[in-house]
Structures are given as C-alpha cells and as structure tokens.
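Possible regression after last week's pipeline update?

I re-ran a chain I had predicted before the update to compare outputs. Posting the input and the new output here so someone can diff against the archived version. Not blocking, just want to make sure nothing changed silently.
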Amino acid sequence: MPELPEVEALRDFLTEQLAGREIVRVLPVAISVLKTYDPPVTAIEGRAVAGVRRYGKFLDVATEGGPHLVTHLARAGWLHWRDRLPDGMPRPGKGPLALRVALETGAGFDLTEAGTQKKLAVYVVRDPQEVPGVARLGPDPLAEGFDEARLAELLAGERRQLKGALRDQSLIAGVGNAYSDEILHAAKMSPFKLAASLTPEETHVLYEALRTTLRDAVERSHKVAAGRLKAEKKSGLRVHGRAGEACPVCGDTIREVSFSDSSLQYCPTCQTGGRPLADRRMSRLLK
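New output (post-update):
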C-alpha cells in the first residue's frame, strides 16, 4: 500500500506535470471507483489544475475555480503517468484500469487496481474535508508543528499496542503497515508494547524514529518517477517484507507475525530482547 512517503512523491511528481494544465477528460472505467456523484466528475473537465496536495495517504488534485479530485490508492491501487495516452476509449471490465485523466497536451494518468478487492476510491468534492477519510485524519507527522510533546499527547491514555496506534489514521496520518514496522525497528521497540506505557525517554526515541524514518523515505522517493516508486520503497525497507532475512543492524533473523489480512515483521534481538513473538493467529504474545 502506498504510504506517506510514496504519496508525497506522487504529489511532488504530479505538481510538476499538472500545474496550470487543463484537464479535458475524466473517464471512470470502473464505476465502483467513484464514491461521490455531486459535483459530477465532468465538473473537472475544462478546468486547469491549481495545485496538488497530500492529506495523509490521500492525493488531492485541485482545479481552478472548481472541485477537487481526491484519490486514495488503498492496498493495490497505483497511478501510472503517460506522456501520451492511448487513442480511443478504454473498455470497462478489461484489465486493472479504473480511471483515466487526460490533459490538453495528450498526456495524463491512469489509476489502476490489481486483485479482486476493489478498494481504490476517487471523490469529486468542493472541499477535501467532505471526504470522510480526510476529515478523520490525525496530524501529519512531518508537519512543522508536530513535535515530541504532540506525540506524547496523542499516545497518552492509548491502551492499544504501538503497532496499531501508529497505523491509526485518526491518530497519526500517513503511516501504514510497512513504515510502522520500520519505525518500531528503528526505535528498537516491540510492536506489541502498549502505547500508553512509554516513558518520556522512550517517547523521545519513538519520535526521532518516526520523523527520521519518514523523512529518509521521502528523500529517497524525491524525483523518482511514479513507475519506480514501488521498487524504491521496497529497496529501502529494513525489516518489513523481509521475514527470514538477516537484520541489517544485528544479523538476527527477521521474524513475522501473521494476522487474518496482514502481517508484521520485526527483529527479536533489536526489538524484543531476543524473545520471539507468538503468531497471534495461534497463541497470545510471549512475554
């Protein structure tokens, strides 16, 4: 799933490609991708792009004097830039294409979604805050005002484990399954440590890991073409998706805990005092 660094890179890329250019056609190929009907998607056509913004994992293309095209790529969605879009109308139900946006220049982008779980979402709204997911977002962890005290305030009283708290978009916007693993590895903390149990010193360590991990990922993704962002993300991950490999810090074997619809990866030596965590599908956490 694209997370804050990849969506920020897409925002940067699209700003260069779209700013000031006119959108001539918006073609929903998979009708299920559209989550709104007023304003209609045609309200964007004939308008120039005023800017591109990011809200957590949401991407917002704003038009001059008109509505916003807000996208959430979900788990299997992606954006593909085309210097020259194919001629002719795309055929519904053929392949992963969900929506096409065409510019006056002949260029544009496609939104696609792989797999059978169709969760890619596109909204046409007058204000991004009309999108329920945007309205519920917590603070952006890379925002200028997001300091250590703010993180401590957010975690105070949180009886959830750190892994779940970091992934909660209403608590902190933009961190998903992959970067929560990376942040906790950098902080040398168990994913099942209770968020409210952190000492001031541990909160400081987590804050530094959070900001450094995300900033480094954003920097790696900067100026990377949209088509290469997935590979760039994977190459920069130390533990997520690397179960069975050696930890790049200590050399221990990276382990995995699986859930019904996701999994997490961690290093026992770096994060849990050398103790493996039990697979939550079969037993409780080993303490």
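Follow-up from reviewer: compared with the archived run. The beta strands are 22-28, 47-55, 58-63, 68-72, 77-82, 97-103, 108-113, 121-125, 255-258, 263-266. Marking as no regression found.
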